[in-house]
Amino acid sequence: MNIRSAGARLVNNHFHALTHKNYRYFWFGQCVSLIGTWMQNIGQSWLVLTLTGSPFLLGLVGTIQFLPITCFSLFAGALIDKFPKKNILLVTQSISMVLALTLAVLVFTDTIKYGYVLTVAFLLGLSNTIDMPTRQSFNIEIVGKEDLMNAIALNSTTFNLARIIGPSIGAVMMAYLGAGWCFLLNGLSFIAVIYGLTRIQAVPYVRQKKKDVGILKEIKDGIQYIARDRLLAQTLLLVTIIGTLAYNFNVLIPVFTRDVLHLDEKAYGMLMSCLGVGSLAGALTMSFRSKRGPKLAQTIICSVVIACFLFLNGLTGSVYLLGLSLAATGFANILFSTNSNSLLQMHAKDEYRSRVMSVYSLVFAGSTPVGNLLMGFMAGTFGADGAYLWSGVLCLIPCLLIIIAFRFKKTAAAQPESAGS
C-alpha cells in the first residue's frame, strides 16, 4: 500500500502528464515503438557505411531522409489543423511500419542496395513531414496546457531511454544476426503505438477553414506572426543553428568510431548509448522541474553550452572520454530542445500553434539535410574529429550573434519607454 501511494505521489508530483488516460495510451505505445526506431537508426547508418565505405554517402542518406521536412513542413503546418490529428498519426505510423518491414525484406533476401536505402529514407521523410508537427500539436489535446511541458519532458525521457536501449540491442543484433533484424523489430514495434492511438478518445482541435484564404496565405500569416513575436523569433533562430550543426550524431559517431578510434559496431552502439544516457538524464531533469515552466534564458544558455561540448568531442581521442563528452552533450541537448519546444507551444496562440510547430520541425529536423551533408563532407575532408571541432565553432559564433542582437533589440525597445516616463 505504501509502495502504491509512493508511486502515486511520484506521478502526481513529477510525471503528472501520466494522470491523463489518453496520454498513457500514447506514451506506452511510444515506449515500445521508439526502441525499434533507434534500432533502425543504428542499423541503417552501419549498413550504409558497410555498403559504401563513404562518410559523404552516409551523410547523403540523412540529407535525403530529412529533405521532405525541409521542403514541405510549412505546408504540413497549414494543413494538419484541418483534420483530426489522431487519424493523421494512424496513417503516418502505418506508413513508417511498412517502410521498416520493406528494409528488412531487402536485407534478408540479400537484395539491398544503397539506392534502395535512399528511396526508403526519402519516403520515410515524407511521412515524418506530416507526423512530426502533428505529434507535437497532439500533446496539448490529450494533456492540456498545464501538463504540456511535463508531457514533452516525458516524451523526451521515452525517446532517450530508447536511445540507450535501442542502439545496445541493435549493436548485438548486427554483430550476431545482421542489420535486417533491426529493421524487422522496428516494423513490428509500430503495432504498439498504432494500438495506443486507436484507444485514445480526445476532442480534436480542428481549425475552421476560412473562405478565400489559400495555403500560401496561411503560411505567410504564420511566419509574420512568428517574426512579430520576439520570444518566438529568437527561440526559432537558436533552434535553427543547433538543429543544423549539433544533431549530426548519426553521421559523425560511426565515422569517429571507425576512423579515429579504430573500433567496431559494438563500440559504436556503446557511444550512442552514452549519448542516450546523458539525454535521459536531461529529460528526467526537465520532467522534475516542469512545473516551473519553460524559460528563454535556459534555451540561450544551453545553446552556448552545446557548442562548447561539440568542440570538446573533437578533442577526445579515447572511447571513454568521448562517451563522457557525448553524455554531457546529450544532457544539454535535451534541456535545450525540451525547453524550446515547450516555450513555443505554450506561448503560441491556439490558431497558430500547428504553424509555429511546423516551423519548429523545419528548423529543428528540416535543417538536418544541410547539417548531414556538411558534416559528411567535413568528416571526409578533415576527419570526424575535425568535423566536430568545426561544428563547435560554427555553432557558437552565430548563437552568440543572435543572443547579442536580440539583447540589443530589447534594450533599444526599452529606451523609448524610459524616455517617455
UniProtKB/TrEMBL annotation:
<feature type="transmembrane region" description="Helical">
    <location>
        <begin position="388"/>
        <end position="408"/>
    </location>
</feature>
<keyword id="KW-1003">Cell membrane</keyword>
<dbReference type="InterPro" id="IPR010290">
    <property type="entry name" value="TM_effector"/>
</dbReference>
<feature type="transmembrane region" description="Helical">
    <location>
        <begin position="88"/>
        <end position="108"/>
    </location>
</feature>
<dbReference type="Pfam" id="PF05977">
    <property type="entry name" value="MFS_3"/>
</dbReference>
<keyword id="KW-0472">Membrane</keyword>
<feature type="transmembrane region" description="Helical">
    <location>
        <begin position="175"/>
        <end position="197"/>
    </location>
</feature>
<feature type="transmembrane region" description="Helical">
    <location>
        <begin position="357"/>
        <end position="382"/>
    </location>
</feature>
<keyword id="KW-0812">Transmembrane</keyword>
<feature type="transmembrane region" description="Helical">
    <location>
        <begin position="318"/>
        <end position="336"/>
    </location>
</feature>
<dbReference type="GO" id="GO:0022857">
    <property type="term" value="F:transmembrane transporter activity"/>
</dbReference>
<keyword id="KW-0813">Transport</keyword>
<protein>
    <submittedName>
        <fullName>Enterobactin exporter EntS</fullName>
    </submittedName>
</protein>
<feature type="transmembrane region" description="Helical">
    <location>
        <begin position="295"/>
        <end position="312"/>
    </location>
</feature>
<feature type="transmembrane region" description="Helical">
    <location>
        <begin position="55"/>
        <end position="76"/>
    </location>
</feature>
<feature type="transmembrane region" description="Helical">
    <location>
        <begin position="236"/>
        <end position="256"/>
    </location>
</feature>
<dbReference type="GO" id="GO:0005886">
    <property type="term" value="C:plasma membrane"/>
</dbReference>
<feature type="transmembrane region" description="Helical">
    <location>
        <begin position="268"/>
        <end position="288"/>
    </location>
</feature>
<feature type="domain" description="Major facilitator superfamily (MFS) profile">
    <location>
        <begin position="17"/>
        <end position="410"/>
    </location>
</feature>
<dbReference type="InterPro" id="IPR020846">
    <property type="entry name" value="MFS_dom"/>
</dbReference>
<keyword id="KW-1133">Transmembrane helix</keyword>
<feature type="transmembrane region" description="Helical">
    <location>
        <begin position="25"/>
        <end position="43"/>
    </location>
</feature>
